[in-house]
């Protein structure tokens, strides 16, 4: 890994997945990390034993705004300047929209969408006061491309994209930059840890039944390797390196499948939008249409 300038990072979801991998790489490179997770995993405890006071840890439930503010305030107060906030906490819920329980729906949106919003609101006063910083937010190819059976997960990631696109404009005046991370299928424990809704028989023979079958081991080895091709070590390395890129990239897409499916989705939307140009312009008020005609 290239040598990075000394920085302090604040990481959510640091107990597993991308949060843990980024934390591990940062510590190996001599950085300081405030690592938070819903529960402090054995892996985090082991890193704490290895790296001493360069790793600050706290339990954090991102769905509790008061707790988020308290932990953020404690981290900034005790560590001083925090340069990069990496918001990685999240999980996937699988099920048709009508299959999802009210509780699972609420929890999916609370963790994946409201959690990053709570975190951003909590860190902004500190970053603004210190004159800037970087927010790196985990999104997904699912923030651009629909996935059968993941409608509420998609909703959470589309929402993340919308929130941070807008917030980035607000924050730029204070030297706070934002990067969205959009990986495709990656070899973390994400798929194994997906929370599944109780299935309805009506969906058994459709595409959702196929998705469930694939997750249950019904996909051949070669297809699975190519469907879940992302290397979390490489992606984490690129996330860490992005903190040195100025200006901050608004979005980083990781994985060939993610790149191709996002590009295709954007192209289809652009073509559909272009086909509606006459309709869109024609629905303006008559006085505006007259002004346009006389221009």
TrEMBL record:
Keyword tags: Oxidoreductase
Annotated coiled-coil segments of the chain: none
Pfam families in the record: adh_short (PF00106)
Alphabetized PROSITE patterns for the sequence: ADH_SHORT
Spans through the membrane: none
PANTHER family: SHORT CHAIN DEHYDROGENASE, SHORT-CHAIN DEHYDROGENASE_REDUCTASE FAMILY PROTEIN
Family according to the record: Belongs to the short-chain dehydrogenases/reductases (SDR) family.
Protein name: SDR family oxidoreductase
Lineage of the organism: Bacteria, Bacillati, Actinomycetota, Actinomycetes, Pseudonocardiales
């Amino acid at each position: 890994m290239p040598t990075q300038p000394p920085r302090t990072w604040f990481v959510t979801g640091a107990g597993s997945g991308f949060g843990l991998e980024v934390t591990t790489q940062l510590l190996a490179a001599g950085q300081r990390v405030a690592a938070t997770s819903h529960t402090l995993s054995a892996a985090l405890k082991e890193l704490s034993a290895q790296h001493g006071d360069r790793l600050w840890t706290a339990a954090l439930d991102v769905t509790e705004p008061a707790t988020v503010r308290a932990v953020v305030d404690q981290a900034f107060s005790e560590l001083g300047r925090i340069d990069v906030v990496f918001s990685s906490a999240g999980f996937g819920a699988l099920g048709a929209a009508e299959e999802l329980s009210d509780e699972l729906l609420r929890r999916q949106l609370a963790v994946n969408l409201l959690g990053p919003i709570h975190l951003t609101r909590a860190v902004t006063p500190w970053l603004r006061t210190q004159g800037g910083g970087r927010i790196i937010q985990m999104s997904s190819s699912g923030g651009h491309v629909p996935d059968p059976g993941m409608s509420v997960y998609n909703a959470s990631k589309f929402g993340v994209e919308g929130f941070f696109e807008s917030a980035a404009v607000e924050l730029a005046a204070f030297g706070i930059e934002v990067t969205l991370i959009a990986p495709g299928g990656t070899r973390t424990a994400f798929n194994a840890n997906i929370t599944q809704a109780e299935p309805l028989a009506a969906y058994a023979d459709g595409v959702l039944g196929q998705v469930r079958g694939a997750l249950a081991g019904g996909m051949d080895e070669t297809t699975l390797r190519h469907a879940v091709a992302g290397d979390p070590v490489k992606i984490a390395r690129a996330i860490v390196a992005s903190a040195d890129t100025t200006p901050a990239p608004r979005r980083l897409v990781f994985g060939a499948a993610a790149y191709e499916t996002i590009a295709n989705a954007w192209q289809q939307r652009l073509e559909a939008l272009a086909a509606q140009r006459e309709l869109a312009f024609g629905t303006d008020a008559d006085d505006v249409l007259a002004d346009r005609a006389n221009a």
